[in-house]
Amino acid sequence: MNRVIFSNVAATMLAVFTAPQAVADLYAGAMVSYANVESRPSSDAAIQEATPILLQAQAGYFFNDYLALEGRYGTSLQRTDGMAVNSVASAYVKGNIPVTNQIAMYALAGYVATDIDNAMAGTVSGSGASFGLGMHYALSSETAVTFEFINVPSSGSNNDNVGLSALNLGFQYRF
């Protein structure tokens, strides 16, 4: 019985993720992010926080209506509360659920590397898993706006800890 259930689930998943759909495959865009950055330069130091505005570029590829891969790169526009985000680079798997012809909800899971310039402690870097939730609203068949929340839990090496969460507002163009 378990084999039958597993076979049916596997066949359904294969059909969903490989079915040909009417979708523009390649897309690119830009996002403005209101971020909360946490930095702990050493294990005995206090956590320092800042709220910089980030500007990010993104590029992605939809395999079908439900699954995409996406890469992003960004930096902060100015130093805020003594911190600046020198770079944030990420790669995500995007699970997309179309709700209507114009609206889709999505979840992101991936890997992010951040480099923070902390005026009090120097450069602090971290990398690790990231996740997020978002909404896509199509303005036309080629353009869309997105709104999402991304979280990168605290991580780092050499006792450096960096955490980042952001609300993103984006514009995408599908080729």
Summarize the structure.
This protein is mainly β and 175 residues long. The protein is 10% helix and 65% strand. Strand 4 (67-76) and strand 5 (83-98) form a beta hairpin.
Describe this structure in words.
The chain has a single domain, classed as Porin. 10% of the residues lie in helices and 65% in strands. It has one helix spanning 2-18, and strands spanning 26-40, 48-50, 53-62, 67-76, 83-98, 103-118, 122-138, 143-155, 161-174. An eight-stranded antiparallel β-barrel has the order 1-3-4-5-6-7-8-9. It is elongated and about 50 Å long.
What global shape is seen? elongated
Please list the strands of the largest sheet in the order they lie side by side: 1-3-4-5-6-7-8-9
Number of strands: 9
Average predicted confidence as pLDDT: 84
Give the C-alpha Rg: 19 Å
Secondary structure topology:
Blueprint lengths: L1 H17 L7 E15 L7 E3 L2 E10 L4 E10 L6 E16 L4 E16 L3 E17 L4 E13 L5 E14 L1
Antiparallel strand pairs: 1-2, 1-3, 1-9, 3-4, 4-5, 5-6, 6-7, 7-8, 8-9
Features:
175 residues; Porin; 1 helix; 10% helix
